[in-house]
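Hi team,

Below is the intake form for DUF429 domain-containing protein from Falsiroseomonas algicola. Please confirm the fields before the structure is written into the shared record.

FORM ID: S-0412
PROTEIN: DUF429 domain-containing protein
ORGANISM: Falsiroseomonas algicola
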Amino acid sequence: MAVARRRDGAWQAEAPRPVGDTAALLPSLLAAGDPVALGLDLPLGVPRDWAASRPESGFREFLSGLGATPDFFTVSATLDTVGPARPFYPARGVKGMTRAAHAAALGLGSAQSLSRWCDRATALRPAGAPVFWTLGANQSGKAAIAAWRDWLVPALAEGAPIALWPFDGPLHALLAPGRAVLAEVYPAEALRQLGLVMRGSKRAEAPRRALAEPLAAAMARLGVTPSPALAAMMRDGFGADAAGEDRLDCVLGLLAMIAVLDGRQPDHVPDDPWIRRWEGWVLGQAEMPR
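The structure came back. Fields below:
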C-alpha cells in the first residue's frame, strides 16, 4: 500500500508498505478524521450478463449480502460445481479448460460475457482478466475473493464509513471527513494515463529501474514529492524480489488517484446504468472498449 497526504497544497508520497491487518486498515487511515480516497487494484463490480439474474439492486447491496453465502467464494476445481452461486473458477490448471466453457457453466452466452466493459481492451491498453477467473499471471479473481470476503464484506456488515465509487456517486461528491471512498484502479491503465512506457516486463527489475526517471518526472508534473525512502526505492527498481512489481503497481495506482482528485484526469463514468449499478469502472479511464 502506498499513501500520499496533501499538505499546504502539495502531495507528500510515502514508500509502499504491506497492508498488514486488514481489520485495522480503515481505522488507521481514518484516524486523523480527514477524507480518504483509496484506490484498489482489484475488481469492484461484476459483469452485467451475470448480474442480470441477481435480485439485488446493484453491486453494493450484492456485496453486503455475501456474508450470508460463504460458499460463493469457494473456487471450483471442475465445471461441475460452477454456477451463479459459485462463480469462481478454476482452482488449478486443467487440460482443455476454456473461458467459453466457464461462461457456459454460468449460463452466459460467450466468453466475452465474463468481462465487464472496463475489463475489455481499449485503444491504449490490453484487456484485463474477467472477475471470476482465478488462473494465470493477470487474473484478478483471487484478489477479488481476498478483498471482498476478508475485508469489504465484514466492513460493510459492521457499518464502516465506506463509499464505493462509482456506485454511490461521483468521486469528489463522496469525499467527506471520516469517510473512505473506494475506487478501482488498474496499473496498466494508470501507466498510460501518466504517459509512461515500460521497456520490458514489470516483473523484471531492470525495466522498473529504467522507469525511475520518467516516473519521477510524472510525479513532479502532478505536484507529488516522494519521501527519501520512496525516491530510493524508485531508483532501485522497487527491489529485486518478486514483490517489486506490486510496489510499482501501488505507486502507479496512487498517482492515478491523485490525478483524478486534482482534476488532471477526468472523474469519468459512462452513462450506462449497468456500469453505474453493477459493473463499476476504472478510475480515470476515458477510453471506451474497442
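SUMMARY LINE: The CA atoms of residues 272 and 279 lie 10 Å apart.

Thanks, M.
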